[in-house]
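Researcher: I'd like a structural prediction for the single chain below. Treat it as a standalone chain; there are no partners to consider.
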Amino acid sequence: MTGFGLLSFLGTLAMVVATDVNSSNTECHSPFTEVAGRCLHIEVATTGSWHNMRKLCQDLGGDLVNLSDLQFYGDLILYIKSLHLPNVHLWIGATDEATEGIWMWTDGTPVRMGTPYWANYKDNVQMPAGGENQNCAMLDINMHYYFNDYGCSSPDISPICEKYHEKL
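Model: Treating it as a single chain, here is the predicted structure.
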């Protein structure tokens, strides 16, 4: 299957999977918005390093978003596209700073590698290939919001924050 064919297939799959991004009874308080049962805040007015944007999310009572659930990832992409945002990359809560090549979400769970998450960039492997210089993950606007590894200190990326609910 060609790269374009794969993108078309995955785009169609995302449309089928993400039928209603605001269908739950989750209550989110400002600045968070309910998306597929989770409370999110996309802060496009503020950009900064991965660590600074993670701190911003934590100050709001959450963290950078975890996209380990494929259904939610598809719903999020549809939501982002519905906002008609300016051309922005978006930090997510994945990094391999602790151990090069071992990608983890901020909650300590492993990040799934390859299709359907990672962008098909340069060498067509759909895997992070930035080595020690690119240890933080973002949704890459130039790659249709697939994951891409990037330098954590890049100051020009906005965060997607997720508010976590208290466990009863």
